[in-house]
């Protein structure tokens, strides 16, 4: 008798579904966290985030090491959270500093909670995803369109129903712009047929149309610089204002199996008066158009079945997806193998 193996039980897929470990991931816009602690589900975990009096951001697993109560419901005491259930105080590095009901018990002084390194950059909160407490995480770097002062950018954030990997597939598929977004003010040009090639870079690879550049959504770059990101460019007509081509830096992070968070930074290379002109033009004319394009993507992806990628018939336009999927599975396999090696 044939035995059916569920894809969901594949340990590599399970790891990818929740998000790769030992990697920086964007988890929310910075303004999600105000004066009160916030609880977010991301990367297969429930995370408590809060700010101290100086505004510095901290993160712990939203799970008191005493009895599992949500720390996010507690009181902020600077770099500590006091659990609302029994008052246990947990410092941002995961150390229990006080047990009011039983002073001097063995829980005091123990690094019993899972702590996360977080940093704010480019309007977003980035979290280093680890299953153990890490004293010093590796650095992360994002492309120059975000890190260079020569560029101006806006963050578009949304939450889409579905696996975050479909959102990644969507960005890594330049050809869908020719069809799904053909009515867009910026994606109506170029050939409706194309041959693609892959070009390696120092941090990943570029998946691009052969013989067409600067016409439409002609290429996507995948990069791994301590954080996984994608980069693309959309040519703009003169009516789109100063700054040359319009660049997009994109990331996607799992919330749970049926929901993901997507980040799209819209960037242009502008300075002096051109920066002010571009920012005014974006807010007043272009932002609504960009959201309309994202809405087309959202509707398409949310209507796909969860197992759609198990019933595919791929062709030449999909070699970039195949390359990336194999790469991610390789990273997940390596992490699983490392986790089983005796210390």
TrEMBL record:
Transmembrane segments: none annotated. Signal peptide: none annotated. One of its GO terms (molecular function) is 2 iron, 2 sulfur cluster binding. The keyword Metal-binding applies. The keyword Chaperone does not apply. Keywords: 2Fe-2S, Dioxygenase, Iron, Iron-sulfur, Metal-binding, Oxidoreductase. PANTHER family: 3-KETOSTEROID-9-ALPHA-MONOOXYGENASE, OXYGENASE COMPONENT (PTHR21266:SF60), IRON-SULFUR DOMAIN CONTAINING PROTEIN (PTHR21266). InterPro entries: Cholesterol_7-desaturase, Rieske_2Fe-2S, Rieske_2Fe-2S_sf, VanA_C_cat. Residues 24-127 form the Rieske domain. It comes from the Bacteria. This is Phenylpropionate dioxygenase-like ring-hydroxylating dioxygenase large terminal subunit. It comes from Acidovorax soli.
């Amino acid at each position: 008798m044939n035995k059916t193996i569920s894809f969901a039980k594949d340990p590599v897929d399970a790891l990818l579904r929740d998000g790769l470990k030992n990697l920086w991931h964007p988890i929310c816009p910075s303004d999600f966290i105000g004066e009160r602690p916030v609880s977010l589900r991301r990367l297969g975990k429930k995370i408590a985030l809060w700010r101290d009096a100086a505004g510095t951001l901290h993160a712990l697993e939203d799970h008191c090491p005493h009895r599992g109560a949500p720390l996010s419901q507690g009181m902020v005491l600077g770099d500590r959270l006091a659990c609302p259930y029994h008052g246990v105080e947990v410092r941002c590095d995961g150390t229990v500093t006080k047990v009011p009901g039983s002073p001097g018990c063995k829980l005091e002084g123990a690094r019993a909670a899972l702590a996360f390194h977080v940093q704010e950059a480019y309007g977003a909160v980035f979290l280093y995803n680890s299953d153990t407490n890490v004293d010093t995480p590796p650095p992360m770097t994002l492309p120059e369109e975000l890190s260079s002062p020569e560029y101006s950018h806006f963050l578009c954030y949304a939450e889409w129903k579905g696996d975050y990997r479909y959102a990644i597939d969507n960005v890594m598929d330049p050809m869908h712009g020719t069809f799904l977004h053909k009515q867009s003010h910026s994606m109506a040009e170029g050939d409706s047929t194309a041959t693609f090639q892959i070009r390696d870079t120092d941090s990943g690879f570029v998946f691009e149309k052969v013989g067409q550049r600067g016409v439409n959504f002609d290429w996507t770059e995948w990069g791994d610089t301590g954080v996984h990101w994608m980069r693309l460019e959309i040519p703009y007509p003169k009516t789109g204002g100063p700054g040359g081509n319009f660049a997009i830096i994109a990331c996607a992070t799992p919330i749970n199996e049926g929901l993901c968070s997507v980040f799209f930074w819209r960037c242009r290379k502008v300075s002096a008066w051109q920066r002010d002109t571009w920012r005014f033009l974006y807010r007043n004319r272009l932002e609504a158009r960009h959201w309309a394009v994202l809405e087309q993507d959202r509707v398409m992806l949310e209507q796909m079945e969860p197992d759609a990628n198990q019933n595919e018939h791929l062709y030449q336009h999909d070699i970039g997806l195949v390359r990336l999927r194999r790469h991610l599975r390789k990273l997940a396999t390596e992490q699983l193998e490392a986790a089983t090696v005796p210390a």
